[in-house]
Amino acid sequence: MERSRLVFSGSGGQGVITAAIILAEAAVVYENLIAVQSQSYGPEARGGATRSDIIISDTEINFPKVTQPNILVCLTQESYTKYSPIVRPGGMLITDTRYVKTYKRVAARQKELPIYYSVMEKIGKPIVLNICTLGAVIALTGLVSPESIMKVIEKRMPPNFLNMNRDALYLGLNIGEDAK
Amino acid sequence: MAVRDYIRDRFFPHMWCPGCGHGIVLNNMLRAIETLELSKNDIVMVSGIGCSSRISGYVDFHTLHTIHGRALAFATGVKMSRPELTLIVPMGDGDALAIGGNHFIHAARRNIDMTAIIMNNRIYGMTGGQYSPLSGYGARASTAPYMNIDQDFDVVQLSKAAGATFVARSTTYHVQQMTDIIRQAISHKGFSVVEILSQCPTYFGRQNKLGTAVDMMTRYKDTTTPIGSKAKKQNPDLIERGIFVQKEMPEYCTEYEKVIERAGGGA
Amino acid sequence: MSENIKFIQGNEACVEAALYGGLDFYAGYPITPSTEIAEHMAVRLPQIGGKFIQMEDEIASIAAIIGASLTGHKVMTATSGPGFSLMQEGLGYAVMAEIPCVIVNVQRGGPSTGLPTNVGQGDVMQAQWGSHGDYSIVAITASNNQDVFNMTVHAFNIAETYRTPVILLFDEVIGHMRERVDIPEKGEINLVERLKTQIKTGVDFHPYLPREDGRLPMSDFGGVHRYNVTGLAHDMWGFPTNDPQIVHGLLRHLVDKINNNVQEITRYKEYCMDDAELVLVSYGSTARSALHVVNNRRKRGERLGLLELQTLWPFPYSLVKEKCAKASYIGVVELNMGQVVQLVRNAVDKPERVFLINRIDGVFISPTDIRNTLRVIQGKGM
């Protein structure tokens, strides 16, 4: 497979780091791929802009950071402004229509997805925005299967949140499919 | 077992100065241990640095002579890893309350089962007579040649506020009371503090013109009084002796056993 | 999928490895970027009947683990920069009193409070020279989470074998990065247990008299042998002494037990070293960036190699000398002003061929950073 370099960005509390970990863990534990995940720490991780880097590959990963993501997810205007310039030319830039107003000058395929509005309409709980986003990402990229993601979610999340997260994941998959 | 069986007699005579109160503390501590009929293998004595800390070398227990001020932190590791052992931690006033002040209040706060004996001679003896947090305003010391302006701690008040569940005070003059208090302190399940006023004729005595060791001990007789005595009401400057606090509270190691149970790690 | 495959941070891998290695007592104080070690210990230790305690500071933390080690337990504390500085007196005590213990330092940018959330490798010299007086220490590092696991187990084994504190000198990138770790089955990695004395009750026990092989059998506090432990210079019973002959013997023993066993203690990895003209030497997270460069250059036919040091102290001078003997240039990749580079210069025949490739701004060194410096080094035509 082509090595995938992803950056998930947003603000603290949106769950972007959790989503990044779930994606990378699914790749490693259930798809026998190699993945490395890291994240920004410090004051910015306590409510400001957050960023998590993920590399997924079928060969060994040495340098663990992402300098030029081929898949960039921005869930706030601030993170879009900060990170959209680093997206690899020809890469994919996924944003949420409620939170981000995009510019034309970015040299990437921009996918402006109504994730927030769909989550509020179909599920009603903004807490699953991250899992819905993850669904859209795997639909658009085919990095891992939804089943692998669900296995990680089952392991990591309290049982009474499972159904809501499954709904969010499949809602995201549909949003991603529609945007292909 | 005779008191003599608790000492490592090949190290005697001890290294303390003539007239020093610390030997009296050693003597009466051992008498207290004798009355409790504790096995030598079950006692760990942990000390820090200073004249007081050398006490651990003279007793035939498991002895851990550590670094300045940290004896209680070392003792916490010993106690938590082997809660069935009896921990006795003799410290000097500077050792316990200046460099070791933070460990002291936190050990008290946790109410971990050990006995802290503060041998309070109001001076740093080992280094030659510098003022300690217990020298008090107006004292002379080699580092306070123009009179000390530092206020002192009240060890009893400090211990109470920090959460110690047994707090007592005695002096090297009142040896029977000292033995009885140390015995009760060791028996108490929780963090026990025993402050013993112990004379340093070599430095504190000389620098403050307090006379001989005998004069200093006589002064302990004259300036102290049992808790709540009539004499105290008439003369509030008298220092009270006795047991100030003795209460049951959850003990740290016992509480941690419950943590293990909650985590599912019980055997 | 096997339960033994984990996707975890380096800090968590360190915890799992410590438990695998037999740890059952941990004392610590929270500090970035090591805190996850304390957090996972707080969860995991009581699950196996072990003990976790959050102390009032790092001084107390190292004191508590020394106390617990004396009762026969395998112990550890973890910290970072400022906390490691606070631990230095206790570390010296553990050296002098020969107490087995493991101290993790997840390095961040310094000096002082420095860059709490950023990576650094500036504590290499402090690891060996941080406490006062002469002594030798063992310091070990790793560049990926599986190696964090293996080196942590190794650290416990070394601590028990030589009755010494061992420092695990990780860094923020390794501590926080998540990747795959395969937890080995019990017995897959050999564990060294504490060597206990066979001396019977009532017979004179010499806790500080080394056996012929240099090892010192211990007796647990609370057992039948009552002895003294002190940070003062001491005799074979553990009692203070100023006797010059005894003090000389003690100091020699403390240093020799480590320095005479460099080969047993040393762990390293090498990549493409056989015919390497340009050797990169690195350790910890930066070895990953170096390896990235080596692999890419090899694809273009350039003869680059990487020597990854996992044991930093005692510094493996002979190993470095041997491995770098044929190299025209040597580049040492590290995140400090040049610490290991000096050691490498001391090790090799031509120190003028050894160059520093570094960053000191809290940013993790990238393959591009390394390539840029290599261009300068090679451009000199030396």
Tags for this entry?
heterotrimer; A: six-stranded mixed β-sheet; 21% strand; C: 382 residues; alpha/beta; Rossmann fold; eight-stranded mixed β-sheet; five-stranded mixed β-sheet; 38% helix; globular
Report on the architecture of this protein.
The complex is a heterotrimer of chains A (180), B (267) and C (382). Chain A has 180 residues and is an alpha/beta fold. Helix content of chain A is 41%, strand content 21%. A 6-stranded mixed beta sheet of chain A has the order 2-3-1-4-5-6. Chain A starts with a strand and ends with a helix. Chain B is of the alpha/beta class and 267 residues long. Chain B has a single domain, classed as Thiamin diphosphate (ThDP)-binding fold, Pyr/PP domains (Rossmann fold). Chain B is built from 10 helices and 10 strands. In chain B, helix 1 (22-36) packs across helix 6 (175-187). The model of chain B has no long low-confidence stretch (mean pLDDT 97). With 382 residues, chain C is α/β, with parallel strands linked by helices. Chain C folds into 2 domains: 1-265, Rossmann fold (3-Layer(aba) Sandwich), CATH 3.40.50; 270-379, Rossmann fold (3-Layer(aba) Sandwich), CATH 3.40.50.920. In chain C, the strands form 3 sheets. In chain C, strands 2, 3, 4, 5, 6, 7, 8 and 14 form an 8-stranded mixed beta sheet that branches. Chain C has a 5-stranded mixed beta sheet with strand order 11-13-12-15-16, with helices on both faces. Classes of the chains: A alpha/beta (180), B alpha/beta (267), C alpha/beta (382). Chain B binds chain C through residues 11, 40-42, 44, 46, 56-57, 60-67, 70, 73-82, 84-85, 102-103, 106, 256, 259-260, 262-267, and chain C through 25, 27, 43, 45-51, 53, 55-57, 59-61, 63-73, 75, 89-90, 93, 221-224, 226-232, 239-240.
Q: How many strands appear in the DSSP assignment of chain C? A: 16
Q: The CATH topology of chain A is what?
A: Pyruvate-ferredoxin Oxidoreductase, domain 3
Q: Given this structure, which CATH class of chain A is correct?
A: Alpha Beta
Mass-distribution shape of chain C: globular
Strand content of chain A: 15-25%
Short description:
With 267 residues, chain B is an alpha/beta fold.
Topology, element by element:
The complex is a heterotrimer of chains A (180), B (267) and C (382).
Chain A: E1 4-11, H1 16-31, E2 34-39, E3 49-57, E4 71-74, H2 77-83, E5 92-96, E6 109-113, H3 115-122, H4 129-141, H5 146-156, H6 162-179
Parallel strand pairs in A: 1-4, 4-5, 5-6
Antiparallel strand pairs in A: 1-3, 2-3
Helix pairs in contact in A: 1-4, 1-5, 3-6, 4-6, 5-6
Chain B: H1 22-36, E1 43-47, E2 62-65, H2 71-81, E3 86-92, H3 93-97, H4 101-110, E4 114-120, E5 123-124, E6 130-131, H5 155-162, E7 166-171, H6 175-187, E8 191-197, H7 201-207, H8 213-223, E9 224-226, H9 230-234, E10 239-246, H10 252-262
Parallel strand pairs in B: 1-2, 1-3, 3-4, 4-8, 7-8, 9-10
Antiparallel strand pairs in B: 5-6, 7-10
Chain C: E1 5-9, H1 10-20, E2 23-28, H2 35-47, E3 51-54, H3 58-70, E4 74-79, H4 81-86, H5 88-97, E5 101-109, E6 115-119, H6 124-129, E7 138-140, H7 145-162, E8 165-171, H8 172-176, E9 178-182, E10 228-230, H9 244-259, H10 262-265, E11 268-271, E12 278-282, H11 286-299, E13 304-309, E14 311-313, H12 317-323, E15 329-334, H13 340-347, E16 354-358, H14 367-379
Parallel strand pairs in C: 2-3, 2-4, 4-5, 5-8, 7-8, 12-13, 12-15, 15-16
Antiparallel strand pairs in C: 1-9, 5-6, 7-14, 11-13
